[in-house]
Amino acid sequence: MADRSLCTRRRLLGGLGAVGTAGVIGHVAPGGSPAPDRAGEAASTSERAAGGPDRPTPAVVTDRDAGTTYPLVTYNDRTGEYDVTMPVNVRFDLTGSAYDPSDVLDAVGIGDGWTQVVAAVGEHWPTKDAKPPEVWSGGTSGLVPPVRNYRKPIDPLGPRLCHHLYLWPVRSGGELVGVAGQAHVDVGTVADHVGGGFDEAAGAVASVYSAAGWRVVDADFDYGVSPGRLDFWGPTGDRWLRPP
């Protein structure tokens, strides 16, 4: 099981304060170039292009929903440019409730088989060359990493490693309104894998919260990406999750 001390309300809110100072998640950046053909979470990243900017402008969705508070897609740095990788397919709606992100973490933290992944080697996790996907922060015009990272093994010795969930706090007008989740199946090896199976993974996440009494509502998020990318992703398994 995950170290429960890492999921206490005091520790979490302290971490959220640090993220908030940098500008928590807002809208996906407007404009930019169309998304590349490749999608998925990469466990190893390419070196930045020589002489390139330290924080390059990400390639963004082609037709974003301007009214969306939650992030729509994740990005990875592969060749000195930030590429669209995965759909942000799970939304925890905390608006008007007494719940906060610590409650979101508590539910998955005690879910059967789910454990928190903590950086143990190098700057990123799970290996020194790995880097988690990031989402765009409209407040800072930059990319931000997830605040939590959970996995549930499927077949660690096979090509389908685990269900994987990343979480980011979401603010609107300075107020915390929810948590964004990206759920996928790790496919490949620990050292070199991609994210897929979004519908399956979102369903696995939803089952954890349903068992904890949360309300699960099927959704159809408009990611603003090309039809070709949607075909490549396959069913994204979009879910709204709301507290009991």
Automatic annotation (TrEMBL):
Keywords: Membrane, Transmembrane, Transmembrane helix. This is Uncharacterized protein. Residues 29-63 are annotated as: Disordered. It comes from Halorarum salinum. The chain crosses the membrane at residues 12-29.
